[in-house]
Specification:
homodimer; alpha+beta; four-stranded antiparallel β-sheet; two-stranded antiparallel sheet; 7 strands
Chain lengths: 154, 154
C-alpha cells in the first residue's frame, strides 16, 4: 500500500513499496534515535510501536535507565497524546522491573524538557534506584544489562 | 444507570441513583485528595475524569505546580494504564501553560515514587520554571494564581 493506503499496481510502484518496507525493517532492526545519538539494539530492552527503553552508558545510579519515544522530537509538547500515553505506560512497566531487578524500594522519574532544565539530549526519562555511580561502561557491559532486563518482559 | 449500566426502574432504584450522582457531584465540587491532604477546589485549575492540577502552597520556583490522579494511590505502579495516560497528557498541557504564563523556556517534570526518593506526599508531578522561592503562600494568593491558570483552559 502507498501513503494513501492503496496497493501499488505497477511494477515500479511495487518495487518502491518493497524498498519502503526494507527501509522500515532495517530502521527497526538496526538503530534507534535518542536525541542526536544513534542507539544500538543491543542496549534496548523493551520496545512498543511508539516507545523504547534502553540502559545507560553512564548511569547516575545503578538502575538508571532511559525511556524514549521512537519518533524524535525536540520538546515534550511535540509528542502526540498517544505517544505520551505509551511513553509513560512503558515508564511504569520499566520502573516496576528496575525496582525489582536492582532490589530498590523507590523510584525517581525525571524529564528535563528544554535547554534551561539541564537537558543534554532532546528527550529522556529516568528511573533511579540505589547508590551513585559515575563510570563509563563498555558496550558489552551495557548489552549484558539490557539482556537481563529484557528477560523480565518475555 | 446502575453499576451494570442499566437504568433503574423502581422508585428505590431511582432514589439510589440520585444519591450516587449527588455524592459524586459533591465530591467533585468540595474536595480533592492529594496524598494525606484534602485540597480546596479554589487551588485546582484543571480537572479531567481521572486527574487534576493544582497550584503549590510552597513552590520551589515560580510555576511549580502539581498534577495528580483523582484516585489516591500509594505508588505510581498502582495507577491503571488509562490513569497513567490521562495524568501525563494533563502534565503536557499544564507544562505548556505554565511555561507560557511564567515566561519560561524549559520545564522539569519530576515524580518521586516511594519513601527513599524523598516523597513526602504519596504521588506528585512537578513542572518548574524560573528562580528559587521558599515562602509559604496564603490561600488567597494560591486561589488567585489558580484562577489565572484556569483561564488558559477555558
Amino acid at each position: 500500500m502507498d501513503r494513501r493506503g492503496k496497493r501499488p499496481r505497477t511494477r515500479r510502484g511495487k518495487m518502491r513499496r518493497l524498498l519502503q518496507l526494507c527501509r522500515l525493517e532495517l530502521h527497526g532492526r538496526m538503530s534507534f534515535i535518542f536525541g542526536q545519538h544513534l542507539i544500538k539494539p543491543s542496549v534496548v530492552f523493551l520496545r512498543t510501536e511508539l516507545s523504547f527503553a534502553l540502559v545507560n552508558r553512564k548511569p547516575v545510579v545503578p538502575g538508571h535507565v532511559l525511556v524514549c519515544p521512537l519518533r524524535p522530537v525536540e520538546r515534550f509538547r511535540d509528542l502526540h497524546p498517544n505517544e505520551v500515553a505509551d511513553l509513560f505506560q512503558m515508564a511504569q512497566k520499566v520502573g516496576n522491573v528496575v525496582e525489582k531487578h536492582f532490589k530498590g524500594t523507590s523510584l525517581t522519574f525525571a524529564m528535563q524538557d528544554g535547554p534551561e532544565s539541564g537537558q543534554t539530549v532532546w528527550l529522556q526519562k529516568h528511573d533511579k534506584v540505589g547508590d551513585p555511580s559515575t563510570k563509563w561502561r563498555s558496550e558489552d557491559e551495557m548489552a549484558a544489562e539490557a539482556s537481563e532486563l529484557r528477560a523480565y518482559f518475555q
